[in-house]
Amino acid sequence: MASNVNPTVRRRRLGQELRRLRELKGMTAEEVAERLLVSQSKISRLENGRRSISQRDVRDLCGVYEVEDQRIVESLMQMAKDSRQQGWWHAFGDIPYSVYIGLETDAESLRVYEPQIITGLLQTRAYAEAIVQGGSPESSGQENDKQVEVRLRRQSRITADKDPLRLWVVLDEAALHRVVGSRQVMREQLEHVMELSQMPHITVQVLPFEVGAHAGINGQYSILEFADAADSSVVYIEGVTSDLYLEKPHDVQKYTVMYEHLRAQSLNVEQSRQLVERLAKDYAR
After folding, report:
1. Which of 26, 56, 163, 270 has a CA-to-CA distance to 153 between 20 and 30 Å?
2. Could you give the 3-state DSSP secondary structure of residue 185?
3. Nearest to 171 by CA among 149, 196, 147
4. pLDDT tens-place string over residues 188-219
């Protein structure tokens, strides 16, 4: 395993390997939990990479699965040790969506549907500050500042000179009309979207009002894909108090098909730029 793999991805890969060993043994998560006197939910969280895993957990699981090759045990225990290292985002304290940041940091491509606002990776500082303050009116200024800094730091993935994140964004037209901050903030934000959309690895399409009911009518979601074949794609759905991560092939395929419908229903790239440019000029008046 490469030494620069971030801890979120390490946990995910370790969990996949532990699930594979359990299935080879023909055991259910419930049976493993009974053997180790722990909850079934703990086994599930360890396998899906949502919970940090200790070397002792790995040792105990390998014992249950009767893994005889000590090299495999030692390799998995090293993965557990490495997975407890901290990513750059931990310097900002408790981040509610830290699992997502870890996945986004390692992703090769990201497809986003955003019905309400300009998606985070495309936001200017002024727009991000207005969004965070409006969405968390009871949070302290310091807490809001931290959220903004994390959001702006994430944007380094699309501005990197080497292997930038391939980003495809479908924005509902409503996101362009919703005045966040002020008309000046909106003008600068839309100009920023136009500038970023000129980059070869960034595609922005607008889903116009006249489409009516559409495949994304149930709300925002993202699809993350990874360069390593060992890492399955993930659908991410952001929530207020908790987030949802879907990794089963059937679920990922369903959302992928939905996204293809959204792309087909949206204005093409040039038409989208023309609409964004026109609205930016309107905000300048």
Report:
1. 270
2. helix
3. 196
4. 999 999 999 999 999 999 999 999 999 899 99
